């Protein structure tokens, strides 16, 4: 099981996947917004989304868990 984490602090602008969805390595899964910039967060491995820890509009800190992929 792998957890996708925030690369920096910011607001969750968009969650691009749903629980149960298959993702591929390099696929954008979440878009963070920080300092008026959109920062895509990508899957590090192929797998199925098991759990989404955040909602759009949430504030996250660097290294916070966003999504769990199995």
Automatic annotation (TrEMBL):
Q: Which residues form the Lipoyl-binding domain?
A: 1-70
Query: Which Pfam family, any one, appears in the UniProt record?
Result: Biotin_lipoyl
Swiss-Prot/TrEMBL keywords: Biotin
Instruction: Kindly give the PROSITE patterns that the UniProt entry links to this protein.
Output: BIOTINYL_LIPOYL
What protein does this entry describe?
Biotin carboxyl carrier protein of methylcrotonyl-CoA carboxylase
Q: Which organism is it from?
A: Bacillus thermotolerans (Quasibacillus thermotolerans)
């Amino acid at each position: 099981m792998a957890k996708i984490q925030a690369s920096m602090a910011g607001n969750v602008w968009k969650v691009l996947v749903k629980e149960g969805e298959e993702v591929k390595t390099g696929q954008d899964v979440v878009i963070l917004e920080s300092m008026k910039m959109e920062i895509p967060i990508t899957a590090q491995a192929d797998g199925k989304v098991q759990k989404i820890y955040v909602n759009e509009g949430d504030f996250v800190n660097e290294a916070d868990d966003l999504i769990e992929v199995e």
